[in-house]
Amino acid sequence: MKSRIHPFLLLFFAFVVHTYSQEKVTLSGIIANESNTETLIGVNIYIPEAKVGITTNSYGFYTTTLPKGTYTVIISYMGFNNIEETITLTENTKMNFGMTEVSKTLDEVVIKSNTTKANIRKPEMSTNKLSIATIKKMPAVLGEVDVLKSILQLPGVTNAQEGASGFNVRGGSVDGNLVLLDEAVVYNTSHLFGFFSVFNSDVIKDLKLYKGGIPANFGGRISSVLDIYQKEGNNKEYHVNGGIGLVSSRLLVEGPIVKEKSSFVVAGRGSYAHLFMKLADEPNSAYFYDLNAKFNYKFNDRNNVFVSGYFGNDNLNFNNSFINVYGNKLFNLRWNHIFSDKIFSNASAIYSDYDYQIKVKTVGLDWKSDVKNYNFKYDFKHYFSNDLTLNYGINSIYYSFNPGTIRPYGETSAINPDQLAKKYAFENAIYISAEQNLSEKLSLNYGLRYSNFQRLGAQEVYTYANNQPLVFNQEFQIYEEAEPTGTINYKKNKKIASFDNLEPRLAMAYSLNNDQSIKVSYNRMSQYVHLISNTASATPLDIWAPSDQYLKPEILDQVALGYFHNFKDDKYSLEAETFYKKVKNKADYIDGADLLGIDAVERVLLNGEARSYGLELMFKKNTGKLTGWVSYTISKAEQRTPGRNADEPGINNGEWYRANFDKLHNLSVTGAYTLNPKWTFGSIFTFQSGKAATFPNGKYQYQGITVASYGSRNDDSLSAYHHLDVSATYTPKPDKKKGWQGEWNFSIYNLYSRSNAASYSFRQNEDTGLSETRRTSIFGIVPSVSYNFKF
C-alpha cells in the first residue's frame, strides 16, 4: 500500500527547513554616552525588518540573533538623539554605539522616544523608571533635586509624615523596601529628618522602582525594590560639577585614569547650616555629609572591574540633651565578564554597614546599635534567542546585628554599662527566571527563587514557660512581658532557627495593539530581617533584628492587574493598576510596649497578618514645552493581630485595624515647563490623607491622677498632608558647551506655608484643668537659592 504524506505536513516541514536553513548570526555590543563612554541602561534597539525589539541590560550590553542580511538598527533613549544605521550581517558582529545627548535648546522637549512603545509589550508592570534628566526638571528643595522626593510623586508611594525618613509602598513598612546603591543594601535612606536623601543626584546614573511583579533575582524584602546605579566616570577627559546652596553644597570630579580604559568619579556633599547656628549662639545643630566614589578598569572587551563605595553620616544635636548620630557605609567590588555573545555575567562582593546612636541626657543614656552584612552574588544573563532570555544566579549574605551597646551619658547618669546580645544570621538564595515572547502579542516573565535563612550563635537565648515570651493578665486584660525561665547557650555558628521558602514569580503582557496592553503579575517574597522602631517614643530607636523562633519571617503574596495605553503618537500615556497584597507573620507591638533597653524584643511583639489593596492611576504628558504627570492612588492597608488562643483578645480585640502607613488618598501633580533655552520651571503638588493614629476618647481618675483612655487602635487620623513646591532655573549661556557652565536655581518648598501635622499631643492645662490638644509641625515655607556649575 502506498503511503501518503498529508499536504499540511509537507508545508510544515518546508517551513522548518526554510527557517533553520537560514544561517543566523549574532549582533552584540555596548551602548554608551558618546561624550563620556558612560554605559546606558534600558536603551531601546529596534530592528523593523525582523520585528525585533530589545533593550540594554544594567551594564549597557545588548545582543540579538538574526539571519544573515541587511538591517536597519534604530536606537532610542530618553534625553539622547536617536540613532538609525543600516548594517549588513554576514558573521557574528560586535558593534558598540555612542549616543549624543540632546542639546539644551527648546527642541529638547519635542524629541520622541520609543521607550513607551517598548513598555507596552514588555511583561514588566508595577515598575517605574526615572531618568536623571527627568528628576532634574523637578523642583529642587533647598537647592538640589532629590531622588527620594521624585519617587514620592509616583502612584502607590507615600511617606509616613513630614520629617519621617524612608518611604512606604502600597501600604508596606519602611523596612520592607530593598534599597540598593550599586547592589549594596542601604538601611537608612534619609538625611536631616527626610529633607535630603542619601543619594547625590550628581553621581546617580539610573534608578528603577519595582512595586510588584518583582523579578526573581531580587529577594529579602516584601514591599518594593529601589535599584540605583552610580555613574562610572568619564574615561575621555576630566570634568568637575557641583552646586553651592544656602544649606548644603556638593562637588563631583570625574576623569580618566588610563584614557578610554579606566576612569573614576568622586563626589562629596555636606551641609553647613549648623555653623551659622553656632555664630548665633544657637545650642541646637543638625548637619550631614556623604562621599561617593567609583573606579573602573576595562581589561579587554570581555572583562570589566568596578570598585564603588559610599560613606555618609548625620549628626543631630539638641542642646546636648538629645544627640542622634547615624550613617551608612557601603563597598562593592564587581566583575563583569562576557563569556560569549549570548552569556553575560556579573560577580559582586559587597559590604554594608549601618550604625545608629542616641544620647539622652535626661535619662543618662548612650545607646549604639548597628547592622553589618557581607554579601556575595553571582548573576548570569543567557540570551538563548530573541524570544527567550534566562536569568539565573546565587546570593549569600552573612549578617551581624548589634541591638545595643549601652553606656552612661553625663556625670550623674545612673545607667549601668551593658551589651545586649549580638545576633548573627546567614541568608542564601538561588534563582532562575525566563523572559519569553510566546507570540507578537503575548510575552511572559516567570521564575522561581529558593531562599534559606539561618539564625546562628554565638548567643544565649531565653526560654519561657510554655514557650510563650508574652503572658496575658486576665485581671487587667493586658499583655505583659514574661519572665525567662532559663537560657540556652548556642555556640558560634550553631543553628538557632532555620527557614526555607520557595518564591515563585510570574508576569504576563498581552498587547491589544501597538499602543495598548493588559498586564498581570504575581509574586511571593520572604523577608527575614526586620526594623524594630518605635517612633512614638520620646527616644526613637532604629534597631534591625533577624527572624528567629519567635520573630517569624514575613511572607508576601501579591497579585496585580494593569492596563497601559499610549496615544497621540506617544505624546500621552496612561497607566492603571489594581493590586492586592497579603502578608503572613506581620508582627506588631502590644499596647504600652517599651523598646528602651529590652534585650528580647519577642516579649513585646505579637504575630498577625496584614493586607492592602487599591487602584493606581498615572497620566503622563511626554513631549512638548510642558511635560509631567498626574498620579492618584486610592488604597487601604490593614493589620489583624488575633490572640494566641480563645481566651486572649490580641490587639484591637483581634479585629482588622488600619496599618500605620494607611493613606486612603494619594495625589501628586508634577510638571516641568521650558519657557525658552534660558528659563525652565517646575512644580509639584502633593496631597495625602492623614496618617493613622490613636487618640484618647476619654479620661478617668486614678488615685488623684488623670489618665487618658483610648479606643480602637489607629481608629483616628492626623489631618490631611499637602503642600506645593515650585522652582525656576536660569541658565545664562545655554548654548555654551565647553569651559565654565553655570545655572541658578530658585525654589520654594511649601509655597503656601501649610502647617502639616507631624504629631498630636494630649495634655491637661495646668491653669484650667481642661484637656487640650497640641499639634506639632516641622516645616513651614522654605525658600532657597543655589548656583550649579560644571566645567
Automatic annotation (TrEMBL):
GO terms for cellular component: cell outer membrane. It comes from the Bacteria. It is found in: Cell outer membrane. InterPro entries: Beta-barrel_TonB_sf, CarboxyPept-like_regulatory, Isocitrate_DH_NADP_mono, Plug_dom, Plug_dom_sf, TonB-dep_rcpt-like. Pfam families: CarbopepD_reg_2, Plug. GO terms for molecular function: isocitrate dehydrogenase (NADP+) activity; metal ion binding. It catalyses: D-threo-isocitrate + NADP(+) = 2-oxoglutarate + CO2 + NADPH. This is isocitrate dehydrogenase (NADP(+)).
